[in-house]
Each structure stands twice: as structure tokens, then as C-alpha cells.
Amino acid sequence: MSPFSEFLATEGVREEVIMDAGVGVMALHGGLEYGTSRLAKSIAQHTAASLYAVVQGSDLAWHLPSTQYDPTVSSNLSRFLLHVRTVFSFHGYHRPELPDVVLLGGNNRPLARTLHRALSDQGIPAVSDLGLIPKALRGQHSRNPVNGPTEAGVQLELPRSMRQRVPMPGIVAAVTSVLVGIV
Predict the structure, then answer these.
(1) What backbone phi and psi angles, to 5 degrees, belong to 72?
(2) Dist CA 60 CA 19 (whole Å)
(3) 100 half-sphere exposure, CB direction, 13 A CA radius
(4) Residue 109, Cβ neighbours under 10 Å: how many?
(5) 70: number of Cβ within 10 Å
(6) Where are the domains positioned within the chain?
(7) For 3-182, CATH number?
(8) Contact 153, 88 (CB under 8 A)
(9) Environment class of residue 5 by beta-carbon count within 10 Å: exposed (0-12), middle (13-18) or buried (19+)?
(10) pTM reported for the whole predicted model
(11) In the prediction, which pLDDT does 103 show?
(12) pLDDT (tens digit, 9 = 90+) per residue, 137-156?
């Protein structure tokens, strides 16, 4: 049994899927990385974006690396990645040595730069230069679901300080403006 199939079989872990527009939002660590699944759901509801989230109960603290989220194990993830052409994947990080900025990884670099401008317009500090993002937070691996759609996507690593302010109106406004522009 793979770690992902074991994770999905764990009591209190559930996948949430909404198939709508060809642009999607994801939260792979919902329930563990505070605010990420709520943010993804909010954006999906306001934009008709497709949604894929894995949410675990508050009694769990299982961090499965994104590269282990295998679409051959989950028909929901597989359908989602085949349905959307690009995706915004929400994650959380806490690194005391990093400033409180949104880190924009993933393999769709033009979309990351567009989102960087939209976040800046909202007064939200962000970094899209991969050379300034720690390797583990870049979301560049080919097995990371953010890179599964045909146009890949952007991985938004949100610092703990920003995730404490759910619903994160500036982040919602920036992502929504970019998302609506490509839907």
C-alpha cells in the first residue's frame, strides 16, 4: 500500500472535489496547514473554479509530501488533473528565517509572475523568483500535482502569519482576479 492510499484510507481523511471550470484550486494539506482548504473552497465558490482538497481531522497531523499524492491511487485526483488545464495549489509554511511573504512556485512561471503582480497590487509581499525560494518550497517536481495539468500551475506557499487571518481577503482578491482572467 502506498503512503497516499494509506493516508486516504485513514479515518478522518476525506477528498473534496468539485468539477467546474477548466481552472482549478487545490489544498492538499487541508486541516493540517491552517486556512488552506478554506481559502481554496472560498475561491472555488466565488469563481466557479474546480476544486480538489484533501482534508484531515484536527486529531491528525499527517504531512504527506505533495510528490506522494499519486493520481493513479485516487480517481478523484486523476479526474481533477485531467479536467483542469492549470491550477492554484495552496500550501502553508513556517520558517522563522523567512520573511512573511507568499512564495510562488510551480512550473507555470508566467502565471506565477502574473499572480505576483496581483498580490503586490493588494499590498501582499510575494516572491516568484525561484532562486529566492527554498528548494523544498518551490513545487517544481514533476510528481507534484500542481504540475499535473497541461499548463501546470502555481504553488502558493503561505506563511503561518497570513493563514491566521482567514478568510485572507487580499489573497482571495488577487487569486480571483487572475483566475477569472484565465477562465
Answers:
(1) -75, -15
(2) 27
(3) 8
(4) 15
(5) 15
(6) 3-182
(7) 3.40.630.100
(8) yes
(9) middle
(10) 0.96
(11) 98
(12) 999 999 999 999 999 999 99
Amino acid code (one letter) for 115: L
Q: Output the DSSP codes for the chain.
A: --HHHHHHTSTTEEEEEE--SSEEEEEEEETTSTTHHHHHHHHHHHHT-EEEEEEE-TT------GGG--TTT-HHHHHHHHH-SEEEEEEEE--TTS-S-EEEESS-HHHHHHHHHHHHHTT--EE--GGGS-GGGS---TTSGGG-STT-EEEEEEEHHHHTSTT-HHHHHHHHHHHHHH-
- The crossing angle, in degrees rounded to 10, of helices 169-182 and 36-47 is 40
Q: Is the pLDDT of residue 96 over 80?
A: yes
